[in-house]
Write a structure and sequence with these properties.
single chain; two-stranded antiparallel sheet
Length: 175
């Protein structure tokens, strides 16, 4: 169901209106907006309304069906000219692909920023934990006979070990 909503989304339709196409009726390199408005006189006062109407008109030209057995979607765009319908279908598929790539890039960038932030934080935590362990060992040179000091050293060592593991994992994810 989400594919049909994406295909018929206003965002995709707005992108399509900016693309140029060749038609027999309007000539070469005309925007879909120009084609759908039949070359009407566009003034600043009515441009927004014409654009919105053109988005709706383009969306109404699209028919999406799904084969329930295979899960394959079929996109059919109806226009006055068969060649234009073909070009619109190809353009729509390209716009969907570009939309998908942009979404993927945005997710990747968010993940990348998150990992880099976590690496920074973990590096600071690891450095603090290492310094705590170093200070502890510097203050307590002979801890063999003290169970509480041995336990404290183990706790500090374990914290350093865990943070080292987290830091290593984050660095691997960054790579």
């Amino acid at each position: 169901w989400i594919y049909e909503e994406l295909i018929k989304s206003r965002k995709i339709a707005k992108s399509m209106l900016k693309r140029t196409y060749d038609t027999q009726k309007f000539g070469a390199n005309k925007t879909l907006f120009y084609i759908l408005t039949s070359g009407a006189d566009i003034s600043p006062n009515n441009k927004e309304k014409l654009f919105s109407n053109s988005v709706d008109a383009f969306i109404n030209m699209i028919d999406v069906s799904e084969d329930k057995d295979s899960g394959i979607f079929t996109i059919k765009i109806t226009s006055e000219e068969p060649d234009l319908s073909y070009e619109l279908n190809a353009g729509l598929i390209e716009e969907i692909k570009l939309h998908h790539e942009n979404i993927s890039k945005q997710r990747h960038n968010k993940t990348l920023h998150f990992i880099m932030g976590r690496i920074e934080d973990t590096a600071k935590e690891l450095q603090n934990a290492e310094e705590s362990l170093r200070d502890f060992r510097g203050r307590n040179r002979r801890i063999e006979n003290s169970p509480s000091l041995l336990l404290e050293e183990e706790r500090l060592s374990r914290e350093v070990l865990v943070l080292t593991g987290v830091f290593t994992t984050l660095k691997q994810q960054l790579e």
